[in-house]
Amino acid sequence: xxxxxxxxxxxxxxxxxxxxxxxxxxxxxxxxxxxxxxxxxxxxxxxxxxxxxxxxxxxxxxxxxxxxxxxxxxxxxxxxxxxxxxxxxxxxxxxxxxxxxxxxxxxxxxxxxxxxxxxxxxxxxxxxxxxxxxxxxxxxxxxxxxxxxxxxxxxxxxxxxxxxxxxxxxxxxxxxxxxxxxxxxxxxxxxxxxxxxxxxxxxxxxxxxxxxxxxxxxxxxxxxxxxxxxxxxxxxxxxxxxxxxxxxxxxxxxxxxxxxxxxxxxxxxxxxxxxxxxxxxxxxxxxxxxxxxxxxxxxxxxxxxxxxxxxxxxxxxxxxxxxxxxxxxxxxxxxxxxxxxxxxxxxxxxxxxxxxxxxxxxxxxxxxxxxxxxxxxxxxxxxxxxxxxxxxxxxxxxxxxxxxxxxxxxxxxxxxxxxxxxxxxxxxxxxxxxxxxxxxxxxxxxxxxxxxxxxxxxxxxxxxxxxxxxxxxxxxxxxxxxxxxxxxxxxxxxxxxxxxxxxxxxxxxxxxxxxx
Length: 516
Description:
Layout: E1 6-7, E2 17-18, H1 33-42, H2 53-61, H3 66-77, H4 80-93, H5 101-120, H6 123-144, H7 146-153, E3 158-160, H8 166-185, H9 189-195, H10 205-219, H11 227-231, H12 234-253, H13 269-284, H14 293-318, H15 325-328, H16 330-353, E4 358-360, H17 361-386, H18 398-422, H19 453-460, H20 462-479, H21 487-510
Antiparallel strand pairs: 1-2, 3-4
Helix pairs in contact: 4-5, 4-6, 5-8, 5-21, 8-10, 8-18, 8-19, 8-20, 8-21, 10-13, 10-16, 10-18, 12-13, 13-16, 14-16, 16-18, 17-18, 19-21, 20-21
């Protein structure tokens, strides 16, 4: 497919050409701004913002870019304040009751406020905050004596991972907090340019959301072993499809702006999750064991990438027409095979992690070492993909799937180390096994660490939190005009917004009410 060019000469067909898809210095940087505006109008590509247009176009059309590598790492670092907030909450607030209002507000200050502030800061400030808080956590752990007792426990204690590890709960809570903050933050002017959803290639913090939800859905799912498992699908799939349809109808009725380059004209995240669950479960019937999920997912991903390279990728990203259902929703439909591959890969990861309920110290350390190796391999592949096939959320290509999988594995490593080991006390999470006790029947059950109240409330009503976040995001956009707000005003609005959403699900948690 040939790239369209813009003739800017005085005589038709005789002027100079600017090729904005060419990465050479002579084109993009030297072209006047009005040339780019005219060009974008001709190819029916409307920029998200009206500021720094050259930077936005350059970043989002260069798939083989060192900037994509930097962005993929920077986006992961923007998730770190949530992880650090969860850890600090457990260290500083675990002596308080889960139903204590004081604990809720302390955890909000430790989790939500840093998350909002770090979305407004430059990358170097984010790194500095992460380094300082991480050093403080290490100091608190050292002061608690956790390092001193580890060698003694190496042969005497058993760690209970369980079939639904707390690391899965923590990753899901990370997705809810991060997405809840980002979907409103994206509407503020200062946040938008570097962190908005990529319309073609890119790896921003907003690109993480849908992929992380697919991962968390896979972590708590099982492969379908027979048709009876498929019969239970409507209970999970139909509510998601109904939510997707409701959202599409409502925003159409109120004429609320939706970027069609995200999922298409009619589709949205709820449709993507519902269809991924449906077709992913059906595809899992092809695997006769959990181990076969790995080659199955990689096979689907490889075939998906092949089809993208044959021209579908260019069609999705560059075609201006939106006539008919497929053309109108090509972004969401073309991404489904990649979603399914990531979903099956997440199920395989979960089954590997929970393959053994009880681990001694040596086995648990071996599990952490494996996660570390997988994380290093994953990020290495991300860097390679950034310069080969690119990283594209819009098509869920190989680079994007590997990037999300690497983020998930890294979060699992950090959460497992912190919450399954470092924060574990001898009385709560490990059990001493005297030499005389060797029979499995005599093995006592270890008690899991209490999670932060913030996490527990999201675990009980995560979908409710997400729906309230979407509702309040629309309300803020229609009433407060976020693009006109200053940095201070935007931080205040985001903080009040997160406090409102968190307060609702926490109130439901205190009353033991589970909605969704």
